[in-house]
Amino acid sequence: MTKLLCPVLVLVAAVAGCSSGDSGGGGDGGACAPAQCQSDCEAHGYLAGTCTTGGICQCAGRPGADADVDGDAADADADPDAGEDGGGDEPDAEDDGEEFEVDPCAPPACGPEELCGETTRGDGVDNDCDTEVDEVCDCGTIGTTLDCFPGDPSACPVGVPCRGGCTRGVETCTEFRTWGGCIGVVGPAEEICDGADNDCDGLYDEYIDGCESPVYCPGSVSVAPMTYVPLTGSEMFPDPFDSWLWELICPTTVGTCPLPEDPVAQDTQVLILSSGTYRARATIHADATTYTCEFAILAQGQGLRVELTWDTQGSAHGDTDVDLHLHQWGAESDFFSSPQDCYYGNCKASSCCWSGPPSVDWSLPHTMDLAACQDSPHGEGAQWVSHGFCANPRLDVDVITCNSAETDPTLDFCAPENINVDNPPWFEPMRVMVNYYSSHSYFGTTNAFANIYCGGALRASFGPQPLTLSGSSSGENWMVADVMFYEGECGALDCEIVPVDTVITGPAFGPPWSTFVHGP
Questions:
Q1: In whole angstroms, how far apart are CA 190 and each of 165, 167, 207?
Q2: Each residue of 326-366: pLDDT tens digit?
Q3: pLDDT in tens, 12-42
């Protein structure tokens, strides 16, 4: 818990919930008056105030709107004796040592000031609801990212998809070590009669006289990458219709956007391979009227997920082969020749298990829920199913060549390469490396991009990094970053990412392991 002393809060507002028992009435030492605690917490922008067994007033929950803490403070200053006659618990000078506690793990809510979270680097939340996110925070490492949402945090509760039509954006640490704008966010809009929750309050078409929309538009849904997502139009619009069209709007991190299996069918599905926030849109024509429904699909993996793309991928751009590697913590052994290196030669379903168990064994348990890997493209999903598990670590997608025009992700589709560790070890870093393997007769430089996701959230985006070939098969190696996982103060899985950002030729490990702030 983060504890704030009562004198600090007195400067902001009158605080009466912290009582030493010396303010008349003969109360017990360390007593906390429940009614006064509730009142004080509301004055400080919180919804609930509770007296703990230690006599501390603890605030939590969504804040009350328009809490005029400055006005309260002024009133307290103007009337320092307020509360004496009624036996109130207003603190006096002797109460300076008492504590007023705020729970840092309570759900984010509108409050009096912007906060920078447990890491002090930012939390992606608009804590003071001024439509800016983390504007006072030093983001620390250039290129790192956070999911973000400007506005009332209640529209996008932590750990679940946003309500209604809202979606989070992404903020990136700039060269000035300040957070950039929240790119890609969709915020609340005015509620209209369309069967959707436009204002993201958990209700739809509320308070609109005469509204009888035949469309029920679902809220955001959360799925894992490499998952078939059902698009069930019959639940959205059960009435007869003349025509139907499904469209998928992909995040900017996805180079080639997949199409639904049958875009003109009321009920269909789409295979989503990459992480990010997608938007599914249905356009329905019925009885000379056009209806639209749009909702978000949040594709989030678990643990560590690294996705690699490059600008010469695909038949229309050079069709080069660039590969993703992940090195285990420990000895700084060469890439390519050690089971510490997870890559195409030993970490795919088709290359992991020639002699039975996986040759890459980092003492991590397999993921037994095959839903995590069974839909991997290019036949790899079926191979994982035959093994009976999803290995950790594993390379789910290895793209050697692909068709730039293909929109069916089950065919010769240009997907990002990705490596997953569903249950990463704590305090044991892993190194992300990218190798320019083959030009396939392309002449020129390729530019690689690497996105690192922790617990489903995009936490760092690196690139473009130019890479060249030295001869026919000795391309450059880009040491991208070292990633370490740990348990945050509030019990959630978190990660620390330190850029390495070094390009070398040859299989060497490169610079020594990075130094991390967090430790066991």
A1: 11, 15, 11
A2: 999 999 999 998 899 999 999 999 999 988 889 999 999 99
A3: 222 333 333 333 333 333 457 777 777 776 7
- Please give the C-alpha separations between residue 41 and each of 67, 111, 272, 356, in angstroms, as whole numbers: 10, 11, 44, 60
Exposed / middle / buried, residue 287 (Cβ in 10 Å: 0-12, 13-18, 19+): exposed
Q: What is the dihedral of CA 509, 510, 516, 519, to 10 degrees?
A: 20
Supply the pLDDT for residue 326. 98
State the residue for tokens 């999903």: 381
Q: Which pair of structure tokens corresponds to residue 292?
A: 């639209």
431 Cβ contact list (under 8 Å, min separation 6): 326, 327, 479, 480, 481, 482, 483, 500, 509, 510, 513
The answer to whether residues 47 and 115 touch, using CB atoms and an 8 Å cutoff, is no
* Helix residue ranges, H only, 44-107: 69-78
Pairing of strands 221-223, 289-299: parallel
296 with 163: CB under 8 angstroms? no
Q: DSSP 3-state assignment of 242?
A: coil
CA max distance for the chain: 89
**pTM of the prediction?**
0.74
